[in-house]
Amino acid sequence: MANTYERIYNAAPWCLKELLVSLEAWRRNRHRRYGDYAAVRRDNSFDHYRLPFEAHRALQLESLQALITTAKAKSPYYRYLPDCVHSLDDLGSIPVLTKSDVRQHTSDMITQGTSPNKLWKGITSGSTGTPLTFYVGKTGIRERFAIQDEYYAIYGCEYGTKRVRFGGSKIAPSDRPTPPFWIINRYDNQLQMSPYHMRPDRLALYVGKLNQFQPLYLTGYAHALYNLGKHLVEHGGLTVQIRAIFTDSEGTPPHYISIIEEGFNTQVHDVYGLGEVGWAAVQCPQGKYHILERTCIMEIVDDDGKPVPPKESGRIVVTDLTQTDVPYIRYDTGDMGTLSEEVGCACGWQTRILQGIDGRADDLLITPSGRRVGRLSHVTKPGRGIRESQIVQTAPDKVVIRVVPLPSFDSSSMEEVVAVARMMIGENIDITWETVDSIPRTNRHKFKHVLREFTPNA
Questions:
Q1: Contact at 8 Å (CB) between 279 and 303?
Q2: What is the pTM for the complete model shown?
Q3: Residue 443 pLDDT grade (very low, low, confident, very high; cuts 50, 70, 90)
């Protein structure tokens, strides 16, 4: 079906493309915002997070018990589950669900009696660019979009107002030489802008289209917004006032945020989640990542699935509490993170705080001694005239810093970049740099700032 749609779309004139995009948005909305959606939004109001933390934990346990009861009785994959969990600590006795498990047992995960029209099919690129097909229950999808709409509304950005999305949609062939590099989804009042075509000599065209469309807010890949933000810092030209920017789908290095905020003259709010389990944490107005305790259970665990103490990095594992049609219990996101010791903050939300999102578990650098190194977003900050960069470990003892230069690139500044990298990575590792024309993306056009090109102990 998707391939048929894509062939029709590619062959259609532009006016028909816009109609097809709007029809597809209508189809998706039948899963996202159906029935008594207003009531679902009220149930997911962020005002609930002002309740005491103990209230969230009690709700988690109640939801978890219902999820396990259904999964054990109706999902062939989960027949091994205990008859009941008496506390949230009991969750740790259940094996972690990996992406490999999902690939091999997708049909067995679906609860018996679930109608196919109650499922949403999604595809992610996975940590290595290998697609992962997954399914989510329709009620879960509706709740996820209720959370999204409620979150955006906190910052005065209501669903239905004009917005721009920088996502993975293939709006036009990547070799298209002239605009449009964007398309209007009139059903959702959304302009979709392609990250595939953002060459330096075209960025002014993107700015012009933003000025013409007059969006209230922007969402999407931090990397695309960073490229455009950097262009605005250097050249200006934006006349529309953007109320807020929401980044998602890929890691957002801190130096990206400062450039985006300066270029667009607005605040960036980042969210953390995956298509399989939905949003798991969002930034509050104070900039802290609050775990969405009412709709998921997040754990930070070691390689054996055992909890690690706060302030210690571990694997992010999430249990989705929004639906039971396709249970995701202790799902290994493939990301590394760190919990804060504090609960709640000045914003009033009483939840645990995700102190750091340390990157993909598969993409952390691994030194010859076995030490894992993450949080490398500041390595290239001393570089002058860098459009984008990627830190690549090509062998246990070799790291290459690849940079896409701007016309103003200062090669002498790379000495300080390498020095910072040596300080952070340490050990006897050969660190070099090189210029490249572009940084490859995954097949979903996601950007990886840190990449490991070898398998440890292989």
A1: no
A2: 0.82
A3: low
